[in-house]
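User: Run a structure prediction on this.
Assistant: Running it now.
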Amino acid sequence: MEPLNAARSQEAIPLPENQEPSTHFGFLTVPEDDKVRWVRRHFNTVACKYDFMNTLLSFGAHYIWKRIAVRMMDLREGDRIIDVCGGTADLALMAAPLIGPSGRVFLYDINWAMMKTGIPKVAATPYAQQIHYIQGDAEKISFDDASFDAAMVGFGIRNLTHMEEGFKEMYRVLKPGGKLMCLEFSEPVTPWFRFLYDFYSFYIMPAVGKVLGGSRHAYTYLPESIRMFPGAQRLKEILEEIGFEKVSYRRLTDGIAVVHVGRKG
């Protein structure tokens, strides 16, 4: 398992002059301008089986994590929420009953294939009139300042080219006192469990992805992108640097997933 640890510990190497800026797509280094296309291709590939594979690979735990995360937002009747990188609408559907008929959730995602996959799921619930869809770039959210009471992002922020820009945009569109919730994968804190998780992530998950999801590479990207994402404490610091206040986090399932919450001052 040492190659995995080595990949995580690599430091950024300064770019030669005149070389275009680069970023990570999993462990791959790609030009910044290309990452959106890489991410779009990835989610186009997995969209039709996204919910099924998430449930299978997490043994259903992702639903528990999402319910806990939404409850931590302390939503109220009539709240307006933006669900950034909202995908197939799991978080939106969990938030809708808490904000009542007068509340609204605006599901905001750059990938239409993902949103399209979730539309029938939403249409089959009593909350279809509360959930609206906008296709757009999370680093340039197409809403005015102070438009929302809450912003949430679940398992999507690590796919942005510039994560901080996405958080800054969420800060901008929140009303003063508005709440932020970020649910994202991380790494287990217990060493023996981390070893098992690494083995499962880098060997079992891609194999299952190839057989049942139709793409080994798509399910190799997932654990790689998790390993490149900031740890829980560092992410808390990033949110505070952007301006969020009262930032806290809760580890779930020994740290496989982490919920961060904060407020706009």
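Residues 1-16 have pLDDT under 50 and may be disordered.
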